[in-house]
Automatic annotation (TrEMBL):
It comes from the Eukaryota. One of its GO terms (molecular function) is gamma-glutamyl-peptidase activity. This is folate gamma-glutamyl hydrolase. The active site is at residues 131, 242. The lineage of its organism: Eukaryota, Metazoa, Chordata, Craniata, Vertebrata.
Length: 315
């Protein structure tokens, strides 16, 4: 996979510009988003499979009008190219795997590279990273792991929005009252032991040329980390927090925000990314292929009695 990392790094050095938009009237009203399945690291889940997708991510995307395709690990690169041409965006979810050597990271690098090459040829393909996925985007762009330990496990926070937030693609259409609440109320659930310190982001040329930082937060001991970012040129988006938990995870002992504004924020973020996926015209070669690829072919398992999730798809 070494050639992939070299190609990814060289593409990351391209100068930023305004993202291209599809021609008016070409939006895809049947978007399908892939979710990349990370390896299972939790010992209690290992008897059920080798990789998984929490159902909260599936419901999150479906709630905004998308269907979902699970993107499994250890396929051939040709298989991933076929999947890429069939789906309209991809989500890299949270989890706990190595950000450079895991199969999850290596597969994400393939989609990251294809998405940039595709965009540069006029073909829109968005990527979203949540928590681990957000961290992985920084590794793919920087070409190295710059994360530090950040104590932000099981805590909900408001966002410290930057000057770039109000003009960003991600936040510019947020209703003013919700934007105000986002600055003051604890609407974002954080469940991470590592993060990218703001000073390390700006010290890295690849990162600061590639992304705009839209928000920061401080951990329990005062370290400031990047909590939201979006690509300057490419439609790539990363959040260190978990918008999906606000509506679809319910453990009382965990800091899942469930206030009315937290629910509104969760829907807004899902709606934003699915609308980004609507700008992609990718489609399956046949209806039969499409139906066979959808997550409807898999049955989620109830795991709330052994994990923090409610339901999980195992692969």
């Amino acid at each position: 996979m070494a050639f992939l990392w070299a190609a990814v790094l060289s593409l990351a050095l391209l100068s930023p510009s305004t993202p291209a938009l599809p021609l008016q009237g070409t939006l895809n009203d049947r978007p399908i988003v892939g979710i990349l399945a990370p390896e299972i690291s939790d010992e209690v889940m290992k008897p059920f499979g080798q990789a998984y997708i929490a159902s909260s991510y599936v419901k999150y995307l479906e709630s905004a009008g998308s269907r979902v395709v699970p993107v499994r690990l250890n396929l051939q690169e040709e298989d991933y190219k076929k999947i890429f041409k069939s789906i309209n965006g991809i989500l890299f979810p949270g989890g706990a795997v190595d950000l450079q050597m895991s199969d999850f990271a290596k597969t994400a690098a393939i989609f990251y590279k294809m998405a940039m090459e595709s965009f540069d040829s006029g073909d829109y393909f968005p990527i979203w990273g949540t928590c681990l996925g957000h961290q992985l985007l920084t590794v793919l762009t920087a070409g190295q792991n710059l994360l530090s330990k950040t104590l932000a496990e099981n805590i909900s926070l408001p966002l410290n929005l930057t000057e770039d937030a109000t003009s960003s693609r991600m936040f510019r259409n947020v209703p003013l009252d919700l934007m105000k609440a986002l600055r003051k109320e604890k609407l974002t659930g954080n469940f991470h032991h590592f993060g990218l310190e703001t000073q390390d982001f700006y010290a890295n040329k690849n990162l600061r040329n590639f992304y705009n930082v839209l928000s920061t937060n401080t951990d329990k001991v005062g370290l400031e980390f990047v909590s939201t970012m979006e690509g300057k040129k490419y439609p790539f988006y990363g959040v260190q927090w978990h918008p999906e938990v606000n509506r679809f995870q319910w453990k009382k002992e965990l800091a899942f925000p469930h206030s009315p504004n937290a629910v509104r924020l969760s829907f807004y973020m899902a709606d934003f990314f699915v609308n980004e996926a609507r700008k992609s015209s990718h489609q399956f070669a046949s209806e039969e292929e499409e139906e066979a690829a959808l997550i409807y072919n898999f049955q989620p398992a109830y795991v709330s009695n052994i994990t923090d999730y409610e339901q999980v798809y195992f692969f």
